[in-house]
Amino acid sequence: MKFSTAIIVSFLFLAEFCAVQSLVLDISKFGGAPNSDITLALGNAWKEACASTTASKIVIPGGTYKMGGIELKGPCKAPIEVQVDGTIQAPADPSQIKAADQWVKFLYMEHLTLSGKGVFDGQGATAYKQAQPAAAWSGKKSNVKILMNLGFMFVNNSMVTGVTSKDSKNFHVMVLGCNNFTFDGFTVTAPSDSPNTDGIHMGRSTDVKILNTNIGTGDDCVSLGDGSRKITVQGVKCGPGHGISVGSLGRYTTEDNVEGVTVKSCTLTATQNGVRIKTWPDAPGTITVSDIHFEDITMNNVTNPIIIDQEYCPWNACNKKVPSKVKLSKTSFKNIQGTSGAPEGVVLVCSSTVPCDGVELNNVDVKFNGKPAIAKCSNVKPTVTGTAPACQAPGAVPAAGRKSPAK
Ligand SMILES: *[C@@H]1O[C@H](CO)[C@@H](O)[C@H](O)[C@H]1NC(C)=O
Ligand SMILES: *[C@@H]1O[C@H](CO)[C@@H](O)[C@H](O)[C@H]1NC(C)=O
Ligand SMILES: *[C@@H]1O[C@H](CO)[C@@H](O)[C@H](O)[C@H]1NC(C)=O
Fold first, then answer.
1. Are residues 224 and 333 in the same domain?
2. Co-location of 267 and 148 in the same domain
3. What InterPro entries does the entry give (predicted)?
């Protein structure tokens, strides 16, 4: 009896041990060494991880590495964690990276965890000097692709935690076609004057959470493109940067609706904009944007804290007099406090063909030079409750709110 119990106990222990044990693939085993190019090593480690029928973990230990463009593709047979503790540098010269759109790209898979205390360094300085954002909007295309740092395309039930994206040449992160995707404790850093370096941009994705993440960059900290649904942005610190933005939207006929966005408990510091929704005038898009809620937000010296801009038309790329066809409904701004860099703390410029419905301002207490900032509104009648400015005469969105080239 005693003997068989011991066998059963040790069998259970063994079974438990096997279940939690995962295959660990250190890139050094694939020839990846510090101060060398690890593109091949990571590619080979990925092949093994993706074919494994048990969970696996690829480890890139501390140290500095170089890496060219890479696509890490599924479908894979079991969950994969990629733990990056080192600093991985992209080639500084944009023309040297052979990849499409993103330098490091994860595609068509589920159960990915990207973790560690490491850094994806896009080495953007050379690209920033070459960038001519205005050219992009006049239809001119550069022959050199200015790549984003990280892409997650059609990746479900996955998360990014710990790691940093630094000095991306373009957007830091693109999330496209993902479901149940979480960023928690992620960091984005780039100079305040680096062009078009949005922190996290997403589109066509459902149930994306950006939590406890610090973003300091040269463009929008977070931008939500068309087809964003059930999105939570919470505990995000943004600055420098252009704020947290829904849009720009409506430029194309192929766009999908945006619905269910909550931006909560975020702090913006010395950013150009705070929270913003932007749509294109003089454009064919007829989508709806609904259930967008901004609450418990602190603005520290934010030039334009609250903006709805349905005349978003950077670089004079269109005629502002032709109204946007994008319909905005159920948008709330609640418990928003702090300081504005402009007298107009709230600017709501809606479309004259499809005015905004269901806009609420509740406890919006933003000060400019110690006095309550004012609200300017067109084609919208917000419900104002608690301490919040009532709408004054219609106003235009300040030019500073439109500096960034759109997506
Ligand atoms: C991700 O989820 C969507 C929606 O459930 C599904 O259509 C798609 O096939 C999934 N993709 C992968 C790679 O599992
Ligand atoms: C969502 O993704 C997380 C990983 O970030 C996973 O643990 C969780 O099970 C997923 N939820 C569902 C409903 O699949
Ligand atoms: C406010 O931010 C601007 C840059 O946007 C900066 O020049 C200025 O010094 C800041 N003021 C305070 C009081 O922090």
1. yes
2. no
3. Glyco_hydro_28 (IPR000743), PbH1 (IPR006626), Pectin_lyas_fold (IPR012334), Pectin_lyase_fold/virulence (IPR011050)
The pLDDT tens digits of the residues spanning 52-80 come to 999 999 999 999 999 999 999 999 999 99
Tell me whether residue 6 is in a domain.
Answer: no
Ligand 1 center to residue 224 CA distance, Å? 20
* CB distance 159 to ligand 2 below 6 Å: yes
Bridge partners for 104 per DSSP: 70, 150
Chain Cα centroid distance, residue 301? 22
My answer on whether 366 and 225 are in the same domain is: yes
Helix (H, G, I), strand (E, B) or coil at 206: strand
Whether the per-residue pLDDT at 296 is higher than 80: the answer is yes
**pTM greater than 0.90 (yes/no):** yes
**31: left (phi > 0), else alpha (psi -120 to 50), else beta?**
left
Residues 6+ apart with CB under 8 A from 354: 323, 324, 325, 326, 327, 328
Query: Domain of 332: which CATH number?
Result: 2.160.20.10
279 shares its domain with 156: no
Q: Kindly state if the Cβ of 179 falls inside 6 Å of ligand 2.
A: no
Same domain, 243 and 384: yes
Counting ligands in written order, the one closest to the CA of 159 is 2
Q: Hey, is 401 helix, strand or coil?
A: helix
| Predicted pLDDT at 308 | 97
Strand bridging mode 357-368 / 371-372 = antiparallel
Atom of ligand 3 nearest to the CA of 240: 5
CA dihedral 97, 100, 102, 105 (to 10 degrees): -110
Residue 231 CA neighbour count, 13 Å, CB half: 32
- Answer yes or no: is 13 within a domain: no
Q: Give the DSSP H or E segment for 126.
A: helix 125-130
**Residues 80-105: tens digit of each pLDDT:** 999 999 999 999 998 888 888 999 99
Straight-line distance from the first to the last Cα atom of the chain, in angstroms, rounded to the nearest whole number: 71
Is 180 within the bounds of a domain? Answer: no
Share of the chain above pLDDT 90, in %: 82
Instruction: Decide: 339 in ligand 3 pocket, CB within 6 A.
Output: no
- Which range of residues forms the domain containing residue 384? 220-395
**Residue of 341, 333, 355 whose CA lies nearest to 401:** 341
Residue that the structure tokens 């490491």 belong to:
118
- Our count of domains for the chain comes to 2
Answer yes or no: is 34 within a domain: yes
